[in-house]
Amino acid sequence: MEVDEDIVIVGAGIAGLTTSLGLHKLGIRSLVLESSDELRTAGYALTLWTNAWKALDAVGIGDSLRLQHELLDGNVSASTLSGLETSNTSFKVKGNNGDHEVRRVKRNLLLEAIAKELPSANIRYSSKVVSIEEAGFYKLVHLADGTTYKTKVLIGCDGVNSVVARWLGFKKPASTGRRSIRGSVDFNYSHGFEPKSRQFFGNGVRFGFVPCDDNSIYWFFTWTPSSQEKEREDSPAKMKHFVLSKLGKVPDRIRAVIENTELDNFIPYPIRYRYPWELLWRNISKDNVCVTGDALHPMTPDIGQGGCAALEDSVVLARCLAKALFDETSKESKDKDERELDEYKRIEMGLNKYAKERKWRSIELISTAYIVGFIQQSNGKIITFLRDKILATFLSGLQLKKADFDCGKLRIS
Q1: Among 66, 156, 163, 318, which has the minimal tally of Cβ within 10 Å of its Cβ?
Q2: Helices (DSSP H) in 277-380: which residue ranges?
Q3: Do 60 and 352 meet the contact criterion of CB atoms below 8 Å apart?
Q4: What is the DSSP string of 119-181?
Q5: Per-residue pLDDT tens over the stretch 47-58
Q6: Are strands 267-273 and 285-286 parallel, antiparallel or unpaired?
Q7: Spatial CA neighbour of 363 closest among 299, 318, 307, 308
């Protein structure tokens, strides 16, 4: 069965839903294809920095999410070797784009808030894309269930294993050699921690946690395993024991966060990223196809910008695409083929404008995240000394600097 749809978005994650919402706010319908049979809410929480809140305000859902998530006051870093504090950075500062705003947001609440603003018919679940085919000015998107969508615009928001990114010529994201375990814990009482993120470095590990509210905490742990160590990921009990064994001189009160985490909440995953130079010679957009979010710029989690950058992408893409679609030349004295060619060229120019606007921002964030992670997790004596004695405050401040960005309003001139 072949179905005509002007704009098809692959993936109902942060990037896909926000792009669809941005277009919807501008009066343009799109269809989001999601391979799962319901909204994907895997992943407990993510930190949304100032730049993300600018994007959320642009699509009109910032205020509703603010009511559910408290502001974080700052970040405290310490050494697992000495137990001593190495930096204390306040988030209550002004940047070039106004006051900074940092909150830990539960992923399910974020996705539900976006989806709630969309017509239900804009999302089609159980829709796994298996292949993409060219058909003149259109793309044919073939699904596993036999359905084919004929579309004027194809947007890939389908994550690190993106089918659309592969069609554009991107390679699979590269392994950093690092692994991560993340988890969450819900206390039956107030945990008593201030609204600050906390990070600990040393002995080749990077550990941190962030309160989501008075009762719940999200935490993460990264390290570079040996080949023998990888088998422990099959056992949550072994993972828990391993994390506790690597915390060094972390205070008992903080160690209790791991001790109180249920085994089912220990989630391991490999840390992957896109080589930044790939964005220089690969096509972020080609013809009437483009990618956003993790399909475009998978990055390490070390500056917390993956989801934030996806929100930026979505606003910029919706704005560029809407302008291209609305900037219609006169239909007089044009036949059907000429009109289709004109629209195809306008869409191509709009996507190229989006790609140009997002290329260097993506390269900057991927590169910064990789370097910060390398320094923070390093076990070398020289880098450990520089990190703990000289660079700690700089690295913490770097997160604010990269978050001091405004993707602009959604409206088009």
Answers
A1: 66
A2: 278-281, 306-326, 336-377
A3: no
A4: -GGGEE-S--EEEEEEETTEEEEEETTS-EEEEEEEEE---TT-HHHHHHTPPPPEEEEEEEE
A5: 999 999 999 999
A6: unpaired
A7: 299
